Amino acid sequence: MEASPSIRLTVPFFMVKDMDASLHFYVNQLGFTLTNQWTPRGKIEWGWLTREAVSLMLQEPRDKEKFDAEGPKGKGISICFQWEDALALYHEFAAKGVKIEEPFVGNNM
User: Fold this and answer.
1) Tens digit of pLDDT for each residue in 1-45?
2) How does DSSP assign the chain, residue by residue?
3) How far apart, in Å, are the Cα atoms of 86 and each of 20, 25, 33, 98, 104?
4) What is the per-residue pLDDT for 62?
5) Strands across the sheet with 46-51, in order?
6) Contacts 24+ apart (CB under 8 A), 49-55
7) 74-90 exposure pattern, b = at least 16 Cβ within 10 A, e = fewer
8) Which of 49, 54, 55, 90 has the most C-beta neighbours closer than 10 Å?
């Protein structure tokens, strides 16, 4: 009998330049909830966010000059969220001021 795998979850981890702005976007505009946080110097430097079955982590680097010097982030990376009703989310996000284009889905989903 094989042992069952211990891996249970994969969570995107985004390094962000401005934690306050990122939290505003994910919590106030996209509807995520901050469920865990790390505040070693009295300010959130890392956070775990959830919305339904989706989780993600955000962290603000301590050395922002090095962060800026490393160049553009996210090139070649795509994170896809699958929802039951993309149009309902489109309307929710647009009502909260998110600059967003109407979704187009070409794979019968």
Assistant:
1) 566 666 677 889 888 889 999 999 999 999 999 999 999 889 999
2) -PPPP-------EEE-S-HHHHHIIIIIIT--EEEEEE-TTSS--EEEEEETTEEEEEE--S-HHHHHHT--S-TT-------S-HHHHHHHHHHTT---PPP---S--
3) 26, 18, 19, 14, 9
4) 79
5) 13-15, 54-59, 46-51, 33-38
6) 54/81, 55/9, 55/11
7) eeeeeeeeeeeeeeebb
8) 49
User: Can you name the CATH fold of 10-62+81-109?
Assistant: 2,3-Dihydroxybiphenyl 1,2-Dioxygenase; domain 1 (3.10.180)
CA angle (12 as vertex; 82, 53 as ends), nearest 5: 45
| Residue-range domain boundaries for the chain | 10-62+81-109
pLDDT category, 75, cuts 50, 70, 90?
low
Task: Report the amino acid identity of residue 56.
Answer: L
